[in-house]
Amino acid sequence: MIDAKQVLHVARLARLELAPEDVQPMADELSSILGHIEKMSSLDLDGVEPTTHVVPVEGVLRPDVAEPPLTREVALSQAPKHTETGFLVPSPQA
Amino acid sequence: MSDALIDAIKTTATEQIAAIKAGTLDARELFEAYRSRAAADTTNAFTYVAPEAPAELPGRDTPLAGLPVAIKDLFCTEGVPSQAGSRLLEGYLPPYTATSVQKLLDAGSTSHGKTNQDEFAMGSSNENSAFGPTLNPWDPTRVPGGSSGGSAAAVAAGHAPWAMGTDTGGSIRQPAAFCGLVGLKPTYGSISRFGMIAFASSLDQAGPITRSVADAALMLSFMEGKDDRDMTSIGLREPIETPTRTDLTGLRIGVPEELSGEGIDPGVRASFEAALEEAKALGATVTQVHLPNAPHALSAYYVLAPAEASSNLSRFDGVRYGNRLEAEDGSLIGMYTRTRTENFGAEVKRRIMLGTYALSAGFYDASYGRAQRVRTKIVEDFAAAFAEVDVIATPTAPTVAYKLGEKSSDPLEMYLGDFCTVPMSLAGIPAISIPSGLSEGLPVGLQLAGPAFSENLILGVAHALEQKLGFDTAGAIR
After folding, report:
1. Which domain holds residue B342?
2. Domain identity same for B206 and B102
3. How far apart are CA B209 and CA B449, in angstroms?
4. Catalytic residue IDs of B
């Protein structure tokens, strides 16, 4: 149902790396789960609307009043690497 | 610890608050008792225990009178480790507190610790925590359930008077069932999700894990409410009342054959049927109802929840918080990939893979789109059932607590254990688990569900049954 090649493609999309010996077991596990999920294909869903939110709500915008945000120092405090003004990451060009 | 304190710990949170207010129980002594019990806990229920009591405890005149609450690790608590059971967030100290936690603190609660959980709430046994599994206080060779397993174990062992959990597909109700406790998942949107580290946003709900139905009502009454910081929050439509109901005359209970027949262990079924007999003795009528699409609920859930998780967990990239691991080639993409690969556990990666696959080009309509339509069918099933009955009753879980390692090798088998709780999550309706008795010496859970915003109804019914069944929720307190 999902083969090793697809597993490697999905892993790349998800920014995960799989050891070579883990690729086929992951394909097998996902196939087993997808096989169960596949059972819902037997349902006739023509004309059935999708549910995105079970309790519909409208007009949920709050009043547009500015509140004090986290200070820069606090916002940066949990970053693995940062400068005084921003998050520090490896160069995308590296 | 004095006998008087142990006796107090065996009473419910409501009773402890009343005793503090009456001046017969000292809030500071009680906090220290819970703190030291949590620090000496042998079930691995806690990921953090406060080093000491706050300098000043809330006064006896506050609603919750300084009583401590144990908080599931995934609730952000300012300056206190909030790691969601993940290596990736080890040591993370949030700069803010979740709304639901803050509301309890504002009502006079305190907290003595954070509780263990399946990583990012993905699991049903607490075996997926990066900080090791939690053990069930009723039998330490068994799991406490999950994902709020640490919260349930802490309360069952008397290491917390009550606890906050979260429920996405059963993560409050099933551990409450496995640990002989009361667990309530309220209507979706009734409690703010702001500050909860997200798993599946269209399903995640906070709720109480307690030793009595009255405790669950009390905690819920302070947690609920609309929050400007969570646009899906709506709050409840009427105030939560203290449940006092003892009679069920005229109540119509529906039992869906799809969630109470095949697949339920005989001991669990016997306890469930005995509880229904007690409900009849209190005046209720019990009839069969049908939820014809319920057998497809798990399929829909295991598309929707991983899909939403794969999106939510994309934020863990080693940039703004959490552990970062640099790539050997010094690249940015390599840093993201190594950070995620080496910090996420196997189940989290499996679900991210499943969800990413479900959302990937070419599969969306057949997977996520289809699951959302199945969800509509489930919502319609419940609406049709509630035209005939007032509440729906099922076993909470098909088994009692199983042995550590018994199901962890087969993810699909673990998922199938959620089949009684997932339909209510998909429909967004409130459901409570109360202990119905013991099977093989282990607690069995009874689930009662009602229409959206029927919390007072299901709490009342649960209270009447709780009084009639007389289960000892202090049974594992030593």
Report:
1. 295-372
2. yes
3. 16
4. 72, 147, 171
